[in-house]
């Protein structure tokens, strides 16, 4: 079938198998270009492995450290005349590249919040790998069915305490406008967001894996967070999502206690603002990222997800030195984003930005391109007017 991008708001409803494969290959080539990561992980589980930071983590582990990897995610395969999700095609491409390189790679498609998928994953680790030495937790979902109660919890993206009003952009049309978001109405909405996006499920994974004996001596686990600049605080760090991130970060000491007898450690890595399926949904953030990209590219310090994860693994998690942490015990690979010179310039541009000057003083073109790349579009080498085979299988997942 001929697959063209079909967009609704911040979601692309279609994805292209050849384009996503090219995107995965580009990330693999980048990791290879950086050389091997000394003392890197060898057996890795990535929970939320099909897109964004999770996919980049899996690629970095496999092609930076020759690691065996298992990926867990929830994606839709293609049907005749209907493309699969980008994450499905990403994983198909990753597994094929891994197998060609002689690397073990298997995947599990299902609800990672469920006890069933945890049991299935643990069984696969026992059967094929024995134990893992790194667990990456990179799950992003708007809702969660709690495995103990069966209750469905839905997260909300809202400020707390007062209405938030600021600039935003429709990154498709390029229209800059003001947006107002009403504050959360109840503590229940905050609690639900924490239940979906906080640290409880990460803790459940590590508890069950530890009990099953599939965590190696000295195993590490890392989850991902974001802080950002003050201008995004009301909608992000001081809003409902921020409460969930506080909970995620507060899980670290609990996991460190749990892992202490096997010499293991847990970490939260605070990453840079980047174009992902999740970040595109947050008002204000696409406009901020467009300005940030402009400034960081001009300074020669721009990174995408794969550059961020390669640096996290090579210069933080597996560097031959003590891992530097901030005052709250977090790894910071948002350090270049949060540099004073970067944030000062972004703040100046924020005051000037309008629909009329958007393309001149921001990198909205780069933002759009990165957005469409996520779904396999906007790659020059691919003719999107030609038929492509939508029915792509993930080698390790049988019908």
Automatic annotation (TrEMBL):
A single Pfam family it belongs to is Enoyl_reductase
Top EC group? oxidoreductase
Catalyses which reaction(s)? a 2,3-saturated acyl-CoA + NAD(+) = a (2E)-enoyl-CoA + NADH + H(+); a 2,3-saturated acyl-[ACP] + NAD(+) = a (2E)-enoyl-[ACP] + NADH + H(+)
Taking every annotated instance into account, which residue ranges of this chain make up the domain Enoyl reductase FAD binding? 325-387
Residue ranges constituting the Trans-2-enoyl-CoA reductase catalytic domain according to the UniProt record: 82-318
Q: Where is the active site?
A: 236 (proton donor)
Sorted keywords for this record are: Fatty acid biosynthesis, Fatty acid metabolism, Lipid biosynthesis, Lipid metabolism, NAD, Oxidoreductase
Determine the domain of life of the protein's source: Bacteria
Q: Identify the residues that the record assigns to the Trans-2-enoyl-CoA reductase-like NAD(P)H binding domain, covering every copy.
A: 2-78
| EC number, as in UniProt | 1.3.1.9
Q: Which residues bind NAD(+)?
A: 48-53, 74-75, 111-112, 139-140, 245, 274-276
- Binding-site residues, substrate: 226
Copy the pathway line from the protein's UniProt record: Lipid metabolism; fatty acid biosynthesis
**Which residues of this protein are annotated with the site description Plays an important role in discriminating NADH against NADPH?**
75
Q: Which InterPro entries match?
A: Eno_Rdtase_FAD-bd_dom, Enoyl-CoA_Rdtase_cat_dom, FabV-like_NADH_b, Trans-2-enoyl-CoA_reductase
- UniProt family annotation: Belongs to the TER reductase family.
Give the quaternary structure: Monomer.
Question: HAMAP family, from UniProt?
Answer: FabV_reductase
Q: Give the protein's biological function.
A: Involved in the final reduction of the elongation cycle of fatty acid synthesis (FAS II). Catalyzes the reduction of a carbon-carbon double bond in an enoyl moiety that is covalently linked to an acyl carrier protein (ACP).
Query: What is the protein name for this chain?
Result: Enoyl-[acyl-carrier-protein] reductase [NADH]
């Amino acid at each position: 079938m001929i697959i063209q991008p079909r967009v609704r708001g911040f979601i692309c409803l279609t994805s292209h198998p050849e384009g996503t494969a090219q995107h995965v290959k580009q990330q693999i080539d980048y990791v290879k270009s950086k050389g091997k990561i000394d003392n890197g992980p060898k057996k890795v589980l990535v929970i939320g492995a099909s897109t964004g930071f999770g996919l980049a983590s899996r690629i970095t582990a496999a092609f930076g450290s020759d690691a065996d990897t298992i990926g867990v995610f929830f994606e839709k395969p293609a049907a005749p005349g209907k493309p699969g999700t980008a994450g499905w095609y990403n994983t198909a491409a990753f597994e094929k590249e891994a197998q060609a390189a002689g690397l073990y790679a298997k995947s599990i498609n299902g609800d990672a919040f469920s006890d069933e998928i945890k049991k299935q994953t643990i069984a696969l680790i026992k059967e094929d790998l024995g134990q893992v030495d790194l667990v990456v937790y990179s799950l992003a979902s708007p809702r969660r069915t709690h495995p103990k109660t069966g209750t469905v919890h839905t997260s909300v993206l809202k400020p707390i305490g007062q209405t938030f009003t600021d600039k935003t952009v429709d990154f498709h049309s390029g229209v800059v406008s003001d947006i107002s978001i009403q504050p959360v109405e109840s503590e229940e909405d905050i609690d639900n967001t924490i239940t979906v996006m906080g640290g409880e499920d990460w803790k459940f994974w590590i508890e069950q894996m530890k009990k099953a004996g599939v965590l190696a001596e000295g195993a590490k686990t890392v989850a991902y967070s974001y802080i950002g600049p003050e201008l995004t605080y009301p909608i992000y760090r001081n809003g409902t999502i921020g409460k969930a991130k506080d909970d995620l970060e507060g899980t670290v000491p609990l996991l460190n206690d749990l892992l202490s007898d096997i010499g293991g450690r847990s970490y939260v890595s605070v990453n840079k603002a980047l174009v992902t399926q999740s970040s595109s949904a947050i008002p204000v953030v696409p406009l901020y990222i467009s300005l940030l990209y402009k400034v960081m590219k001009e300074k020669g310090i721009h990174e995408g997800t794969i550059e961020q994860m390669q640096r996290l693994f090579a210069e933080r998690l597996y560097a031959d030195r003590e891992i530097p942490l901030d005052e709250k015990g977090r790894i910071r690979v948002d350090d270049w984003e949060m540099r004073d010179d970067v944030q000062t310039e972004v703040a100046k541009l924020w005051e000037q930005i309008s629909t009329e000057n958007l393309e001149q003083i921001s990198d909205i073109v780069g933002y759009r391109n990165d957005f469409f790349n996520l779904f396999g579009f906007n790659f020059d080498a691919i003719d999107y007017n030609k038929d492509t085979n939508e029915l792509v299988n993930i080698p390790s997942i049988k019908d």
